[in-house]
Structure formats: C-alpha cells, structure tokens
Amino acid sequence: MDQKNLVLALVLSMVILIGFQFLYADPEPPVGTDAALTEEGLTPTPDGVPGNGIPAPENGVPQADAGAGAVPGVADAIVRSREEVLGEGGRVAIETPRVHGSLALTGGRIDDLWLSDYRETLDADSPEVLLLSPLGTPGAYYAEFGWAPASQGATKVPDAQTEWTANRETLTPQNPVTLTWDNGEGLIFSREVAIDDNYMITVNQRVENTGTASVTLFPYALASRTGLPDTLGFFILHEGPIGVFNETLNEVKYDDLIDDGPIAEISTGGWIGMSDKYWLVALVPDQDTDFKAGFRHSVAGDDKFQVDYLGTGVTIAPGTIGEVTNRVFAGAKEVETLEAYRVGLGIDRFDLAVDWGWLFFLTKPIFQAIEYLFGLIGNFGVAIIVFTAFVRLLFFPLANKSFRSMGKMRMLQPEMTRLREAYKDDRERMTKETMELYKREGVNPLSGCLPILLQIPVFFALYKVLFVTIEMRHAPFYGWIKDLSAPDPTSFVNLFGLIPFDPPSFLTIGIWPLLMGLTMYLQQKLNPAPPDPIQAKVFMFLPVIFTVILAGFPAGLVIYWTANNTLTIAQQWIIMRRAAAAGPAPTPPAKT
C-alpha cells in the first residue's frame, strides 16, 4: 500500500497546528477615506459631514485632554492611585446588576466601570474586571461626549473641565441621570444618561437656545486609552481599534496606528471602538445619520489611543432645542447580548465585535450549536462531546466508505507483501501491479486522507470558538478542568500534582492530552501498517508529537479531539470486524 499521500496529509496537519497562530492572519484594514488628518486630531474635509450641507467645524473632534481629570496644569504622566483621582470632584454612582462605578461631573466623562459578573482569575476572591479608569490613573480608559462649534471660539461649549450639575446621585436602569450646564451666553446644555441591565449606556444630548442668534453645533463622542494595552499578540485574534463603516468591518492594530498614523472613515450607520479579547468599548452614533470617524495615536508622556466620531451638524434657532442621541457599549463581548443590540437597536454588524475570523461560516454556527447544547445539558465540556458526536454523524457516510476501503487494504496486506517480494527489483512493475490490485478489489488508497482533511477546518473553527468567546472563559468541565479555554493544568512530570513541583510550561502535558495521544495511537493500530519502514517510523511518532503540541491548546479542544478519536475507533473497529467476517480477498496467480 502506497501511503505517501496519507503521511503527507497527517504531517501537513501537524505543521498547520504548529503554525496556525502565525498563518491565520486577519486581513489588512482598508485604506482610510479622503479626510485630512493632522497631529491635533481629525479634521473633516471642507464639505463637512456628508449629506448635511453645513460647513464642518475647524478643529473636528477634540484630542483627549492630556491634563483633564488630573491636577490642573499637571501632565497625566504623573500617575496617581484610583482612590486619589476618584476622590477629586463630584461623581454620580453607577449601580446596575452587571456593572458598577461612577461618572465624573468634571467633564461629564464615563470613566469608572467594573464588571460585576467577571473576575480576573478563577479564584473566588479574585478582583472583578476593571474596564474603565479615570485619566491620571494607571491604564486610563474612558468615554466622552460633547459638541464641537462650527468655528473655534465662536460658541462656548462644554469641555473636559466643565463642571456639570446632576439631578441625582446614582444612575440605575430605573433612574437615568440628567446633567446640566449653562454657558452663560444663551445656551443651556443637558445630557440625560441612561443605562440598561447589561452594558449599553445611552446619552441624549440637548441644547436649548435662549439667545437671539442661531448656532450650529456638531455632536461628537470619543473613547481614549492611555498606554499600549497588554495584548496576547495572536494573529487569530484581533485586539485593538475596530469599527463598522458602510457595512464593512475595519480592524486596526495598535502597532499599525503608531507606525502609519491616523485613519479616517465616512459612513452612514455603524460604530467604532476598541476591542480586547473579551471586552469592548464601542461608540454608537445615530444609525440613520452620516458621521466621520477616526482612529488615532498620540504621545503625551505615554502612548494614547483614541477612537472618535463627528456627527451631522445641528442648527439650533432661538427659542428651540437641538437634540441628538448617542450610545456607548462598555462591557463583555457576550454573543447573545451583542446580537440583541444588533437587532433591537439596529446597530449595523455589532455581532462582529466577536472575532469570528475567516472561517466565520463555521465558527459562529459551531458556537451556536455548543451554546444550544449547553442550555440543555448545563456543562460546556459535555456539550462539546455531544457536538463531537453530531460531527461524527455528519461525516458518517464518508467515514464508513473510508474505513471499508482501509479494511480491505488491511486484508490485502499479504498480497501486497507478495507483490513487493516478486517485483522488488522492478519498482515500475510493482506499482502497476499494486494499482491493478486496488482497482480489482475496489480500494482507494487515498480514502483515508479525506476524513482527516475535512476535520481540519472544524478543528480550527472550534479552536477559534474556545479562544475568542467569553462564554467559554472560566467554563468548567469535571474534576481538574476548571477552564475549558485554558490548557489542561496537570502534568505527568509532577505525577499530576502528587509531587509539589511546578514544571515549566513546555513540560506541562496533562491527563487529557495523554488520553488524546493514547486514542490516536489506538486508532493508528487499526489502520494498515505502512510498507515503507520510514513511513512506519513517522506514524509511530505522530501520537507523541501531537500530544506535545496539543498539550498547550485549550482543554476543550483536546476533549473534542479525544472524543472524536474514541468515536472513530469504535466506528472503525465495527467496520473492520464486518470486513473480516466477509473473508479474505482471493489471491490471484502470480504473473510472470
């Protein structure tokens, strides 16, 4: 039996597994639109925001103030404790079932937010996940809303130092907060800030004109982040600025923003934000109006990253009120929650905040299937095993055909040995006689490759699901597996925890990877042995190599592979038993 192609398929699979995180790159983001960009910030083109016919403001969206929220006149390079910064100035507490924190009355920023449902580690005493933090603190991260005048200095508008007045002390889902400020020149600014039971904050900005002249103002929103975030750096996951513009997803890397400079987009509908592996801060303008969005980087003592948008100009006549509604999402990238906002609020492609990757047509359905099974079973690990069984059923006809062919090939081993001996000095004749034997017995020597090749995309897609979805984060299985998205924590080096010794990561080969290797070995023993000694040695070491490789993969993926191997062994054993019961193939007379 000539198994070179099969060996090639298996070795290629191994190479892909090793290099997957380097080869599975996200597509390059599209080039920005025709907006002029300056170091000071995003400056729209002269015709202003498309569609409104109103001249654009001269300065565009403000650059995040380097000193705002800190001691006036002192650069925020002087980092202080959260307690010290939060203790300065008035604040409105934020209390919901899923988040808590506060917003600052100075500047009206949303800059203090904790996620109540998520902790940093599996430890029950681990701190909750901190998402937003005021400027002047380590890793400052906040959202800001406001108005930009048509020309600098023409209209006094609220800025980062404005002291707002609140009508209540606590923001809850049942009780929105209204902030007000009078510019003393005939304009009264107000913001109604509301929050739902999840992660969406709605900011309804109003401007009442009590003066005698019309004014034109442009609503804007920005999210600013200080310091280069500590990303995982995996090509299979986007972490950084992100947005949807004109129905197209644009993902920008932090390093590219530093190296290549700012990017601008013009869109009707969409959103812009900054994405971490599991968390998202996204600005959502009115989906029916035009806006200009920007990604940018600056340095003020530390790297600063900003995403922002400038909305359509609003002209406010004397005695009237101008109004615009904006939103900011600040929370966990839960698939169901994002989908609900996409449908309920009409936010274009908001579900793409989860990085489904190029195999989205597999990753998202696989996640939905496992999520559905989890709802029935209550355990993601068991749901993965049941999902594996469904995958096996899907490939059942193809696998049956493959296993029958391999069973016949196993029974043809004596005849193939005879042919090799008879024509050992005539390789061309041996190949010809072998092919005739395959044809006569209805055997396809490549049939064993196809099921393996078809499983590779499913394997990669499941890896992606386990890696990027927060639903899998800290999801337990049974026993020692407390997090299906992390590798098996046990190791044979310390006898799986019996010896008080923490081995280095490259020696952390746990119980589940060993079980996977064992099932792969047993599956291999059921297949016909390669006639070539070199191929036989390659096959002998494949279970060991795959065990070492998969030891560092998420435990949920190893459980899937082990379950898949076990079901394959059972199916293959039954088929081969039936083939054996049918009797050996007749041996044709030797040709001379």
**Binned strand content:** 15-25%
Q: What overall form do the CA principal axes indicate?
A: elongated
Mean pLDDT: 82
CATH class of the largest domain: Mainly Beta
* Uncertain regions spanning at least 5 consecutive residues: 1-10, 20-53, 66-76
Number of domains: 2
Decide which structural class fits the backbone: alpha+beta
Report the C-alpha radius of gyration, rounded: 31 Å
| Second rung of CATH, namely the architecture of the largest domain | Distorted Sandwich
Please estimate the helix content: 25-40%
**How do the strands line up in the largest sheet?**
8-10-11-12-22-18-17-14-15
Number of strands: 22
Main sheet characteristics: 9 strands, antiparallel
CATH topology of the largest domain: Beta-galactosidase, Chain A, domain 5
DSSP helical segment count: 13
Distance between the termini: 21 Å
Write structural notes for this entry.
The structure is a single chain. Mean pLDDT is 82; it is low at 1-10, 20-53 and 66-76. This protein folds into two domains: 4-19 and 365-581, no CATH class; 39-354, Beta-galactosidase, Chain A, domain 5 (Distorted Sandwich). The chain has helices at 4-23, 82-86, 254-260, 335-344, 360-377, 380-394, 396-411, 413-422, 427-441, 449-468, 511-526, 533-550, 555-581, and strands at residues 36-38, 41-43, 91-95, 99-104, 110-119, 128-132, 141-149, 165-166, 170-171, 177-182, 187-195, 200-209, 215-226, 240-245, 248-251, 263-268, 270-275, 279-284, 290-299, 303-311, 314-316, 321-332. The protein contains 13 helices and 22 strands. Helices cover 33% and strands 24% of the residues. Strand 3 and strand 4 form a beta hairpin.
